[in-house]
Amino acid sequence: MSNTNLFESFAEFKEFKSIDRETMMRILEDVFRNMLIKKHGTDENFDIIINPDEGDLEIWRNREIVPDGEVEDDNSQIALSEAIKIEPDFEIGEEATEAIKLEHFGRRSILSMRQNLVSKVIELEKDSLYKKYSERVGEIITGEVYQVWKREILLLDDEGNELILPKSEQIPSDYFKKGDAVRAVVSKVEMRNNNPIVILSRTATEFLERMFEMEVPEVFDGLITIKKIVRVPGERAKVAVESYDDRIDPVGACVGMKGSRIHSIVRELKNENIDVINYTSNIQLLIQRALSPAKITNIKINEEEMKAEVFLKPDQVSLAIGKGGFNIKLASKLTGYDLDVYRETEEDDEDVDLDEFADEIDGWIIDELKAVGLDSARSVLELTKEDLVSRTDLEEETIAEIIKILREELD
């Protein structure tokens, strides 16, 4: 095997793996020195000159010239009669430098060396990929969809490295096909079977935080601080922001003129509803803001048990709970308090708890009404039939029957 053929194959491998020149030279030298040690027991009297870009390899062996018949070590000594064949002017005691051809090692050693080289480069690539993405955990990257599977999507970055976006880390309404550009945050890097696996996420709170940094310069510059983010991916998110500069309105800056900044984030998150609120250390005020857009009339806080009783007018209860209960769940997570919602009614208003109708209305129907904040007869009757149908999963005929039963009772 000639130098040219050997290095042509190495050059192709180097280009495919994007190994820099300096690293490739170091690996090549290590591999060749290991081969020299294996064949001669030492590499101390060898010089290796490598130029991967040109495909050049030179190995020079340095040996002491001794009189004929006094050679004790073929590797470190050379007889005068042999030395003058290299250079006629050589004399005893001098050092003879001789070029070593690859053929000197034999075909088997060269093939073994090449396998060793490939193994080292692959290992280096794995270490490099692991280190690169371990340092980028929490950063947003863009990858191109290469293959779509049932449980995950395979993406490729700009250098052709493979990235994984599991189904569990995708927004429920995400839909990607081959060739699509996908933005996600680096969630973690794992080693599986000695291979680095880069896991991406679009559901992590860090993804939403990085999106704010990209779209809101004041957040990127540190003028606005994101204190906390809670979200139900694809449904709703609440972001508490704060600014130490009184001249900056943190909520207004994050939303942007006519919602220009927040809209680009919402589009990326598949129309996830994002509430941006001013952070405050006043827990009562924070709870009020967290339950937006509902308007609260009164709050009773139990700091020891980290609970709060929230009182609202009847028409505000469903707003506080939100579709699917997401609003109150996220408000609880944001504030750190368990929130219980109560309906405020006038003292002279007669009302009956829905549980009192258990004999006439099925339990699952009562539970369905309670799930959207309707826990009394009057709270149900205050809404139109159309509102009740849109807020619950109940049929129109069922709603009509419920209204009839409740009205008869109150009348």
TrEMBL record:
GO molecular function: DNA-binding transcription factor activity; nucleotide binding; RNA binding
InterPro entries (UniProt xref): DNA_repair_Rad51/TF_NusA_a-hlx, KH_dom, KH_dom-like_a/b, KH_NusA_2nd, KH_sf_prok-type, NA-bd_OB-fold, NusA_N_sf, S1_domain
Keyword RNA-binding: yes
Pfam families per record: KH_NusA_1st, KH_NusA_2nd, NusA_N, S1
Domain S1 motif: from-to ranges: 138-203
Domain of life: Bacteria
GO CC, one annotated term: cytosol
Chief place where the protein resides: cytoplasm
Keyword Protein transport: no
Record field: transmembrane: none
Subcellular location: Cytoplasm
Biological process per Gene Ontology, one example term: transcription antitermination
Keywords, comma-separated and alphabetical: Cytoplasm, RNA-binding, Transcription, Transcription antitermination, Transcription regulation, Transcription termination
Coiled coil: none
Protein's job: Participates in both transcription termination and antitermination.
Family: Belongs to the NusA family.
Summary of subunit composition and partner proteins: Monomer. Binds directly to the core enzyme of the DNA-dependent RNA polymerase and to nascent RNA.
Name recorded for this polypeptide: Transcription termination/antitermination protein NusA
Organism: Cryomorpha ignava
